[in-house]
Amino acid sequence: MSIQFDVRTRVREDLRDLVPYDTHPYPNVIRMDLNENPYPFPEAVCQEIIKKLNSDVFTRYPDPGAVELRQALADYNGVAPDNLIAGNGSDELIQLIYLTFGGNDRTVLIPVPTFSMFKIHARITGTGVEEMRTGEDFAVPVQKLVERARAGIDIVVLVSPNNPTGTVIPPEDIMYVLENTSALVIVDEAYFEFKRETIVSHLNRYPNLIVLRTFSKAFGLAGMRVGYLISNESVIKELNKIKQPFNVNSFSQLAARTALKYRQLFDEQIGMIIEEREKLFMELQGLSGVTAFPSQSNFILFRTPVNSDKVYQELLKGGILIRNLGKVPGLEDCLRVTIGKKEENAIFLEKLGVIL
Ligand code: PMP
């Protein structure tokens, strides 16, 4: 006789309404949905990675301390290796922060709209979530935020440049938050390389600061899953107690440190992305009824006069995948397009023009 096992009732009660991540089953489309770098990974970097591959990369466990990668990152960011932890994408590090500093009886304050994983990982780790809507221009109202943070908030999230809006939080506003709350403040700088404004240079002044970065955007390594965080040694020490020992695989560590070594090669790609972004912004603004929001990142958020579901579906039929954000409160009829190569942007614009 088989036992009774109702798996649904065995799932943690607070997680029963979660849905799996959309697996994007669209093989033959132009991908302009995930804010990746559209250009080929530089050949010279590729060749060096291949040259350095050896049997140990496959047979041995990865370096749990990612020592060489952290040394390279320390040089890149003007900090010490002990200020750094590498992660399996910054997604893993968001979860690690909540596992360490969140959980039951702890609450995170998230200005929205922003990157959805901050809320999802909070829920997964049992961390309470308070959301705070930003204004029409998506500026984070820092005074209001600090007032809220003082009333029992443990963690504050600031994303700059923000995804999906492209908005930057002025450094003085970030410092205002850091100086006026004892909450842990996560500053997500995933898109740092497109704006080059950072709070990292002030790290020593703020014991409550954690900065998040990623190799998935400017460095074109989304497939390798490498992110990192920067904080003071005492915070790093606590996070290291919770971190999975072999979280970043050997191949990814090698790829990330080689990409960093050749970072000038990516500067050219970043320059082209920024140039294309400005062009695309003007062109979107020129489409009748469209509002494009200024972006300091590698994507543009825009609102259409046509229902965003329709725009999304029609573009997909035409072979272009972008992000439909119409269901996000405050972003009704909005979509986000990742800056592609010149020719991809042209196709996107042409197809969008036909739909509108
Ligand atoms: N933070 C922000 C603001 C992002 O937009 C993203 C990716 N969309 C991430 C973090 C996650 O990046 P990773 O690939 O390093 O997990």
From TrEMBL:
One of its GO terms (biological process) is L-histidine biosynthetic process. Pathway: Amino-acid biosynthesis; L-histidine biosynthesis; L-histidine from 5-phospho-alpha-D-ribose 1-diphosphate: step 7/9. It is an enzyme of class 2 (transferase). GO terms for molecular function: histidinol-phosphate transaminase activity; pyridoxal phosphate binding. Keywords: Amino-acid biosynthesis, Aminotransferase, Histidine biosynthesis, Pyridoxal phosphate, Transferase. It catalyses: L-histidinol phosphate + 2-oxoglutarate = 3-(imidazol-4-yl)-2-oxopropyl phosphate + L-glutamate. Its cofactor is pyridoxal 5'-phosphate. The modification N6-(pyridoxal phosphate)lysine is found at K217. The keyword Amino-acid biosynthesis applies. Its EC number is 2.6.1.9. CDD domains: AAT_like. PANTHER family: HISTIDINOL-PHOSPHATE AMINOTRANSFERASE (PTHR42885:SF2), HISTIDINOL-PHOSPHATE AMINOTRANSFERASE-RELATED (PTHR42885). Homodimer. Belongs to the class-II pyridoxal-phosphate-dependent aminotransferase family. Histidinol-phosphate aminotransferase subfamily. This is Histidinol-phosphate aminotransferase. It comes from Thermincola ferriacetica. The gene is hisC.
